[in-house]
Description:
Blueprint: H1 2-29, E1 37-40, H2 48-64, E2 68-69, H3 72-82, H4 86-91, E3 105-116, E4 124-125, E5 132-144, E6 150-157, H5 158-161, H6 170-181
Parallel strand pairs: 1-2, 1-3
Antiparallel strand pairs: 3-5, 4-5, 5-6
Helix pairs in contact: 2-6
Amino acid sequence: MKLVRYLIVLIILIFFQCCASMDESTRKRDKFSLDKKYALVLFECASWDIAERTTEALRKILLDYGFNIIDKNEFAQLLKKKNISEKDLIANPPIAMNTIKDVDALIIGKIELEKGSSGGQAISTSGTGSMYTYIKECNTFVFDLTSAGILTNVNFSSAALSQSSSTFTPEQVADKIARKLSPH
């Protein structure tokens, strides 16, 4: 009888050890990490200049942190071969699954702008110089092409993050995104 109890306890311990190790490997696979190769999709934004500045600043910071980010020209060629546009990826990230083999995950973002007439760090001005454009909100997520899931997301509004000024430059937005994505 003692032997049976001992065997049952041993089997239960082995089972929990296997589950814990599977859970750990799943967590490792399903997180934003240095082990993956990422494609950074041009951020969706009403201003191409702001989208480009934010995307490229984020690319530089993540590369400095040691993340493996595919070159934007190489990524453009991969998309062209598959007849997929970056707008297609933003609208429907799963279309890249099983088609883009050289990338593990996509980093996709959307920037919402706000126009105002005074204060803060304006990103651009209108032709008259009286209206300024500010980044109001930025939503970024990392879509895993293997599991078809979102590895992580970063959402913020400039008003919620700042008490002295509610505006940020594209470079500051990129820095905030990178800090939330990375353990650095």
